[in-house]
Amino acid sequence: MWDPLQYAHFRDARKRPFFELLARVPASAPALVADLGCGTGDLTLTLAERWPGSRVLGVDSSEAMVSEALRRPAPERVRFELADLARWAPSAPLDVLVSNAALHWLPDHAALLSRLVGLIAPGGVLAFQVPANFEEPSHRLIDEVRALPRFAPALASVRRGHAESLAFYEAHLSALGLAVDAWETAYLHVLPGEDAVLQWLLGTTLRPVLLALGPSEGEAFLDTLRPLLRQAYPAASHGTPFLFRRRFVVALRPSAS
Ligand SMILES: C[S@@+](CC[C@H](N)C(=O)[O-])C[C@H]1O[C@@H](n2cnc3c(N)ncnc32)[C@H](O)[C@@H]1O
């Protein structure tokens, strides 16, 4: 479903939240680090650079993404695995669990957080970032087109990503005994190129929709969406301004006493 090349467009804008998340992770020498929903693995490799003594696991359920990750030259202590986060578990407790722009594809964040916290060692850190732009015009317009009678039946079971509120994440993680640092950032990206917002969405949000529709209905879906996006996000001569909100959570599990 994922296309590493399309996802690589706008790479700098997509990378920045990862580094802003990692800047708040208070770990100095973790033994075992995992990057869940690691995509093409370039950001996973930066974890190995930051913690030169650690073993680093990148996990993703997309064959295309994992094969791209496996093509990168990497030290022996970095491994990539094809697995679904809904079920994956490491062979030893994790000292740092990072997930950048992936958990919004998984349902039931209350159950998910409990499971992920159970994978972390005492004194370990859970750090994740999820998009929080589901109420922005881009996503409302996708929903509008999804609901048209022509497309709705084929898309009925296609999951829409979702993020919970900061208060939800804080409440659930503190109830599990973690100390939580949570915040939201709105980035005003100025995207280059024609139909830039559509190009951005083709890298992520629209992937499951196009996969379910197939090539010809997929084209029809894009032909319907394109003019709506052009109107909602007018292109200026210097690029197309595109507001994108993201939520960040860094939670520290207390050390065993
Ligand atoms: C938007 S990409 C982010 C990739 C990478 N973390 C980054 O920041 O560049 C989301 C990734 O999550 C992965 N993903 C989505 N659902 C998943 C699941 N249930 N199990 C494992 N990976 C999943 C996708 O295959 C995709 O590579």
Structural class: alpha/beta
Fraction of residues in helix:
25-40%
Task: Give the CATH level 1 class.
Answer: Alpha Beta
Count of DSSP E strands?
7
Q: How would you characterize the overall build of this protein?
A:
The chain is of the alpha/beta class and 257 residues long. It has one domain (4-252): 3-Layer(aba) Sandwich (Rossmann fold), CATH 3.40.50. It is 39% helix and 24% strand. Strands 3-2-1-4-5-7-6 form a 7-stranded mixed β-sheet. Strand 1 (32-36), helix 3 and strand 2 form a beta-alpha-beta unit. Helix 6 packs across helix 10 and helix 9 (196-202) packs antiparallel against helix 10. The protein is globular, with a radius of gyration of 19 Å.
List keywords for this structure.
single chain, 257 residues, alpha/beta, Rossmann fold, 7-stranded mixed β-sheet, 7 strands, globular, binds S-adenosylmethionine
Compact description:
This protein is of the alpha/beta class and 257 residues long. 39% of the residues lie in helices and 24% in strands.
Task: Give the arrangement of secondary structure elements.
Elements: H1 4-8, H2 11-22, E1 32-36, H3 42-50, E2 55-60, H4 63-70, E3 78-82, E4 94-100, H5 109-117, E5 120-131, H6 137-146, H7 152-155, H8 166-175, E6 179-191, H9 196-202, H10 207-232, E7 240-252
Parallel strand pairs: 1-2, 1-4, 2-3, 4-5
Antiparallel strand pairs: 5-7, 6-7
Helix pairs in contact: 6-10, 9-10
S-adenosylmethionine binds at residues 2, 14, 18, 37-39, 43, 60-62, 65, 84-86, 100-102, 105-106, 204.
